[in-house]
């Protein structure tokens, strides 16, 4: 089985996996509007892999069946300034200008 992987130009590290190239019929319209114009990254064979782009293979296969797509979002970036202020016992709001 091949899975089509698309990226968005709106958010680095965000990928949309669909079971068929250029078939976004299962993806809700509001999500497609926020995702923007999908840019094909690759067609990914999943037969011999345990993970795909950091996504568990079985989780991805399950998502291909229902709801018919998988959206990979990048991990939340740590705010180092906020973490430092909290360590110092200060309010992170003092960093807001």
Q: Would you kindly provide a written description of the structure presented here, covering whatever features stand out?
A:
The protein is α+β, with helices and mostly antiparallel strands and 97 residues long. The chain has one domain: NE1680-like fold, CATH 3.10.510.20. The protein contains three helices and six strands; from the N terminus they run ββαβββαβα. The chain has a four-stranded antiparallel β-sheet with strand order 3-1-2-6. Strands 4-5 form a two-stranded antiparallel sheet. A hairpin with a 2-residue loop joins strand 4 and strand 5. The longest helix is centred in the middle third of the chain and has 9 residues. It comes from Alteromonas gilva. InterPro entries: YcgL-like_sf, YcgL_dom. This is YcgL domain-containing protein OIK42_07430.
Which SSEs are present, and which pair or pack?
Layout: E1 2-7, E2 15-18, H1 29-35, E3 39-45, E4 51-52, E5 55-56, H2 57-65, E6 70-72, H3 80-87
Antiparallel strand pairs: 1-2, 1-3, 2-6, 4-5
Domain YcgL: 1-85
Pfam families: YcgL
Protein name: YcgL domain-containing protein OIK42_07430
């Amino acid at each position: 089985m091949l899975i089509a992987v698309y990226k968005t130009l709106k958010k680095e590290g965000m990928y949309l996996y669909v079971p068929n190239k250029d078939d976004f019929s299962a993806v809700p319209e509001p999500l497609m509007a926020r995702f923007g114009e999908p840019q094909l990254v690759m067609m990914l064979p999943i037969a011999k892999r345990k993970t795909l782009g950091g996504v568990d293979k079985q989780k991805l296969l399950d998502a291909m069946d229902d709801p018919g797509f998988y959206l990979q979002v990048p991990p939340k970036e740590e705010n180092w300034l906020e973490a430092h202020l909290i360590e110092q016992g200060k309010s992170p709001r003092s960093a807001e200008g």
